[in-house]
Amino acid sequence: MINHVRQEDSHGCVIACIAMVAGKTYAEVRRCFPTYGDNPTSGIQADKRDIVLVRNGIWPIRHTDLNLYPDKLYIVSVPSLNIEGGMHSVVVDCTGDAMELLDPQMGNDGKQWYTNDRMRSFGDVLEVINTNTEVG
Description:
The protein is α+β, with helices and mostly antiparallel strands. The chain has one domain: Alpha-Beta Complex (Cathepsin B, Chain A), CATH 3.90.70. 18% of the residues lie in helices and 21% in strands. It contains three helices and five strands. It has helices spanning 13-22, 26-30, 46-55; strands at 58-63, 73-79, 87-93, 100-102, 125-130. A hairpin with a 6-residue loop joins β3 and β4. The longest helix is centred in the N-terminal third of the chain and has 10 residues, at 13-22.
């Protein structure tokens, strides 16, 4: 089970997604991005996200077919509901009986967030494998 982590900054969705899949706090992951916040209109770029994922024991696998498969965990890019023309990242957990969408904006005052029935389209699909988890 993945614990929901809220983003604490307007562009902190990637930080919160990494925290969710790595089982860390927002503050712990935020420290991995020392220059985050230097540009208040920009979030975390994919190359920096992937480096921090690997440093936290998470193996990122980019999917080009834009499909979500059972028994997998993903970080998915979706159109932002709060920043016009912007993109946003959410975690999609397909490891259980039903797909669960975890949006870092959920619970933030004055913000809209995705739910399972609200996600209609998505862009970048990144499968994430936690190498810190024992298997079988």
